[in-house]
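PROTOCOL LOG
Step 1. Enter all chains and additional molecules of the complex.
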Amino acid sequence: MNTHLGTPVSADAGTRQGGAWETVIGLEIHAQLATRSKIFSGAATAYGAPPNTQACLVDLGYPGVLPVLNAEAVRMAVRFGLAIGAQIARQSVFARKNYFYPDLPKGYQISQYELPIVAGGTLEIVLEDGSRKRIGVTRAHLEEDAGKSLHEGLAGLTGIDLNRAGTPLLEIVSEPQMRSAREAVAYMKKVHTLVRYLEICDGNMQEGSFRCDANVSVRPAGSEKLGTRTEIKNVNSFRYVEKAIQYEVARQIELIESGGKVIQETRLFDPDRGETRSMRSKEEANDYRYFPDPDLLPLELEAAYIEAVRAELPELPDAKAARFSAQYGLSDYDAGVLTASRELADYYEAVTRAVPGQSKLAANWVMGELAAALHKDGLEIGAGKLPAERLAGLLARIADGTISGKIAKEVFEVMWASGTSADDVIASKGLQQITDTGAIERAIEDVMAHHPAQLAEFRAGKDKLFGFFVGQVMKATQGKANPAQLNALLKKKLPG
Amino acid sequence: MMIDRRTVTQLAADLRARKVSSVELVRACLPRIEASQPTLNAFVTVTAEQALAQAQAADRELAAGRGGPLAGVPIGHKDLFCTAGVRTTCGSRMLENFVAPYDATVVARLKAAGAVMLGKLNMDEFAMGSSNETSYFGPVRNPWNTDLVPGGSSGGCAAAVAARLLPAATATDTGGSIRQPAAFCGVTGIKPTYGRVSRYGMIAFASSLDQGGVIAQTAEDCARVLRSMAGFDPRDSTSVDIPVPDYLAGLDAPLAGVRIGLLKEFFDTGLEADYERRVREALAVFERLGARLCELSLPNIPRSVPAYYVVAPAECSSNLARYDGVRFGHRCRNPRDLTDLYKRSRSEGFGAEVKRRIMTGTYVLSAGYYDAYYLKAQRVRRLITGDFERAFAEVDLLMGPTTPTAAFALGAKSADPITMYLNDIYTISANLAGLPAMSVPCGFAGGLPVGLQIIGPHFAEQRLLHAAHRFQLETDWHTRVPERCA
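Step 2. Run joint prediction.
Step 3. Record the structure below.
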């Protein structure tokens, strides 16, 4: 069954929701927990191993084997719950979700159903207009991942790779409180930032460590009643989530406006065609026959344990951003950008502490030159290409007037390429700023002598030529003249 | 060839005293097992070579003055305990050729104690049955009368011990699968408290009810074997981390003052008159030994069978989903597609009773029926557990018949599942409540063995074994051997 629309949907189709229709979105995010071993077995969880080399008898669902819960996965789920101000269940229950599929070795997935480990938290997102919105997290529960079916390179056959089977997941279910694709992405990014801060998920979306299902519906603006929703499965990039939701919203509106009805169904997003396609309808859905897993006792957590986990929580993104604003005098925007990841925030703090009183300069450089260079080379801040103390060394030379901001960019490029220190680059290239008034004056006089025509025009009232003289002197001094001094001296000398 | 009537206790002593070697014992057992197969069919697999190798190793240990508490003692395992390199069939075509790559914890512990495995014992398919007629490898027959069933599901274990093919066997009990065949075959069996023996490597039927135990000639032997197999296992989350007491200690202590409760519900109209007389005579023995008897009523007991036949099939329907023809076990020939592979592999691999329970279990867990069946059954289970807790506030042990009748004829009940299920009417409640329970031979009705059931509070195995042992010091029912075997 394939019910996708033939007509392409423009990217701004969502704007119609501002009028007659309201979009309602809830996300189910699957975050793969960064444990070394699987949630119910001792097998390793490393990504990319040859098929079926990281699946032990428990993962293979062999007769007679039993699951044993990984305490580290529990600790990580509790960390997340505490970080979003949720209730940590003193007793939660693992249940079996029964269905047949070749990559599900036991014929059931162990998950949490009626009593999840985390319930009722909130996250705050920042909207485009700078306003803030709280999104409720209904629940977060622990479960095991399934394996993978492989089709490539196996003509007429399906291969099964059970390396991923039993990998711990935290499924984070939001309230249906997002009203646009952008809000959904902002929420997803917020969760992404948080799980990495908490060091419970590597956030690698290409490898599927962080992916989401989006529940999307539309309703007439002002209506209280929810429309029929569709679920878009397994989207693993922020951009795709935005596109998939935009497409789906437009599809649903168009369908209703042309007299049709939205069917409750599961849909898949095809990034190549930028559209969602029906996967299975509600009628085709499995009856999962959930029941408590008799192989696992209810998970009981003591208050002291929960408090111990709370005590180990790191400074969280929102708190860190607020502190950066207050402590370093940064705008909310800059503080938000610099705290988007723990590595970036730590880097910024290391830089700014090394160059006291220059926190704004440090912010500009980290968000500007450094971010651009990282982006160009496709590197992460954590790659260690330019240690914080190196960048601080450069900023110190700007701060003490040794070099200008413009020269500093040149120095930075050399540092980035060669890995040497700012001082070495400045010394070897003779880039030290000229602050000697006499030397600058001599350069000015020389330029004036060589450009009598321009000088005459300037004196006749053509003020714009001031910049010409700045440029000429800079050229003559290879950009090393102190800009402030040069400006002052030119103002004094040019008028004659 | 003479049968060996020696118990585990006697054999362990004789082996240690070098009066007999393990190899001699194994050499004596193997031909008797072979000879018994056409009539009793107690074994699915006989591991002659491994047994001799293990026996030689045990003899070397014993010669060096070492060796575990069961060094050199031949035993058998019910064919649902996984044994590395030896097939584990669970009595099913589905696992006809399944060879586990690992030993169940029970198997590993008994191996470490020095026991020598003679083979794998026949059973009802996936432990679902009360007569051993559902085995893919054919029914086991009762050594007392080969027209009769040995009980089930551990029928092979009980028949083998009754025929003195081996002195003891591991077994499992989900709703009576140790006690009922022990009663039918005139041997002693113990189902420990749920969580006392690791379920790791024990192929699951109903996970919240399954419990491994022992079938042997005497309570003392049960104590001796259980001591080596019980205890916490980090690989089984439901196993309990309580130290295992020395079950052999204090077995001879006097019974005076022990309070024994008789469950009114266990002496109902369904109980055969002769069977009841033997049980009451046994109770009189306890009275003579100084125990005090009183009658008790547990109102929720009659709900055990319906609750059990919701919970056990529900769990089994999920536990048996892994047999899908994909990774191990039976796979149909030339599947057209995935659905065909599932359908035919499972249709061909499972027998009728297993299918019946998978379907029942799937039904009771389905949307719209879950609350009415599964949740309600779990509530009944809690009520039954509560009944027992109140009873054990007043008495130390509960006693009654193990089954309503002695062994029945092959085919007599296999056409009517409900009649078959009612055979477990006295045994099921102990599983629902997770309590330790035993069956002890206490006489004969119509020439067939009668079983006295003893139930105790959680982790009171020692109390059960003590009472059973004292009874066996006063009686000789447990020493009787079927004529055809003698």
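Step 4. Note key features.
Residues 1-18 of chain A have pLDDT under 50 and may be disordered.
The first strand of chain A starts at residue 21 and ends at 32.
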